[in-house]
Amino acid sequence: MNRLLIKNARVIDPSQDLDRVCDLLVEDGRIARLGYGLHSSGEVVEAAGLVAAPGLVDMHVHLRDPGYCQKEDIFTGCEAAAAGGFTSVACMPNTNPVCDSPQVVSYILERARQAKAKVYPFAAITQGLQSQQLTDQAALKAAGAVGISDDGRPVTNNRLLLEAMRQAAELGLLVSCHAEDLAITNGGIMHLGEVSRQLGVPGVDRASEDCNTAVCIALAAASGSRVHIDHVSTAGAVAMIRDAKARGVRVTAETGPHYLMLTHERLLSKDADYRMAPPLREERDRQAVLQAVADGVIDCIVTDHAPHTPEEKADFVKAPNGVVGLETSLAACLTCLVHPGVIPLSRLIAMMSWVPAQLLGIPAGTLKPGVAADIVLFDPEEAWTVDPAKFHSKARNSCFKGMELTGRVKATWKDGVETYRDGNGKEVF
Q: Rounded to an integer, what distance in angstroms lies between the CA atom of residue 245 and that of residue 203?
């Protein structure tokens, strides 16, 4: 029997309303017991001063596999996930080929068997992300898809999207929507505002996100189905989601750490590592998103981990959108949400583990006895400077590069097996 004992950690598990210093015993890859003064003949980790929590769950990542493995692949993406404390990730369908068939879902799941995190695929809403023909949701679910998404290219046919939502509701699949009106975006590469005008580059009006958010909410209300709004970045989207929830619409929402910490002024450097979709907005948008996290309008935090090669990101105007985030997300959120007192640590853990696991319907986000021992151990007070050269991801396009963050992952276990330890194998506890 394989055993692991984590002693004297501050154990936080929102699924059990648990926040106390105790021991955590793992046997044969499962949580065996939580208590005091526990003993084990296996590995013992002295964790006084550290926090042990359910392995984090990121419900919005791009692993680029199949088709774009020069940017990332399932193995390196999951190594990055483990280094960031994640044990479960849900990957978006804009691969090559697009994840629109049972065969591609099966390919992803088979590759992920040997990876350092559990991978849950989202399948495309329409064939090839072309907004012309719906995918076979029943077949995709049977193959292992946890939901459907248009991330990568939003559905432009609202009739099709409405029908997709109705089918998803019958099958119990989550619909995850990238809220962007591409006609309004119209080739913009950053937020439309003072900075874009100063740089003389095409901007993206916040109406692009606001209009599509309104459409998705209206279709969810009409169909009675669940809809999840991706990476919320505008004050307008926040207001609509808040109103929809008050009206009983089955809408949930996510945002990323960059929208909580950064604004479009970062683009004055003409560095494409600060370009993503949706783009960094203005201070009033940042404050609105922060408030939405504080009052529960936004349900969970994601990274939208989007790897690109350095060559692709070298040209500010022509570079593709996207930033990596798996290895910085927990630290960034501790820095901007917990330490300033926006939300308590237990709430952050819920937003990064239990809540996304519940939305996806996956067995994760809890430390209840008997469940898989997916655990993150971190120091909430350790300060460090982000150096992309040390990332486990293939990519380096981080918008937090050079920033000092407070909070560091010390170890991660998936099914009781260590997938990451800070210090390259050195004693760090």
A: 30
